[in-house]
Amino acid sequence: MADVLVLVDSVDSGSSDGVVGKPTLELLTLAGRLGSPVAVVAGSASAAAVEKLAQFGATAVLTCDPAALASSVVVSVVSLLEAAIAVRSPVAVLIESTAEGKEIAGRLGVRLDAGVLTDAVDVALDGSTVVVEQSVFGGSTVVHARVTRGQPIVTVRPNSVTPVAAPATASVVVVEVPVAEGRHASVVERTAPEVGGRPSLSEASAVIAGGRGVGTAENFALIEQLADALGAAVGASRAATDAGWYPHTAQVGQTGVTVAPQLYIACGISGAIQHRAGMQTAKTIVAINKDAEAPIFDVADFGVVGDLNVVLPQLIGEITKRKGS
What CATH number is associated with residue 50? Predict the structure, then answer.
């Protein structure tokens, strides 16, 4: 079987306990549909990380000297992938569809004169050709696309597929990364992000999201209280993040994070098509909104027409009471 390269998230690869994030496992699952998954780690990989990658189908794990990546933003990662492609000649390269992932994909495409497809939700083989499925126009239209030149470089939206274990034996191969020439941006300082007690949006089994109807940044405390009562992540609509009520990293939607939790509670969110594109695959959707005609009710499994400032305290109180009994 032909190789398919999967770029392992740099945060995951740097984890001392070898934890590999769910988006990477999703990429490995998709890679298994095209050929033999080969994980590419930007740096070194612990034995636990290699074991986890192999559990989900990686037949090889390509690593490099961390010092080669110490000062570069994305240029060295692109160089690593370029070197890995030269060694393995893959049929495709899969990268998580984040802002950084898309930049890496774009730079790699320019270097290799290869086609780039972004925000894929599925991949498949048509004979020997890689076909990519994309959800466009807010999820209203499905497009099937393929590249016409070079190896397909594909960025995949998180939560597009359920990771499936496919145990394999993975060899570890060290790839030499060429030194980047010319002028490029470099990292002068690194600050670890603050990690709270809530799960990340992309991996949470439950998400509580607030929108314009929350009213103020202070009122997001209610959203957080409900999230903490359920062990859920906190999300927000674009209107709420643009208003400065909650960080943009929490934005759910077409231009934000795509989520597919077991439970999604939309509080004060009207349900514009751009927002629905990022959450409508949730298993159970609950909508709380004062406007009975809000579009969010069209995709909700359960709806509550009412003021969230009244509904949420009652809901939090009932959950707390039941957890205590």
Answer: 3.40.50.620
Residue 283 lies in a domain: yes
Residue 67 class from Cβ within 10 Å (0-12 exposed, 13-18 middle, 19+ buried)?
Answer: exposed
Residues 165 and 211 in one domain: no
Residue 321, pLDDT above cutoff 60: yes
Residue 28: its H or E element? helix 22-34
pLDDT in tens, 264-280: 999 999 999 989 988 98
- Assigned domain for 30 exists: yes
Number of domains in the chain: 2
Share of the chain above pLDDT 90, in %: 68
**Are both 141 and 37 inside the same structural domain?**
yes
Measured between alpha carbons, how far apart are the two ends of the chain, in Å? 55
pLDDT, tens digit, 9 for 90 and up, residues 279-303? 988 999 999 999 999 999 999 999 9
User: Is residue 111 within 8 Å of residue 76, measured between CB atoms?
Assistant: no
Spatial contact of 50 and 12, defined as CB atoms under 8 Å apart: no
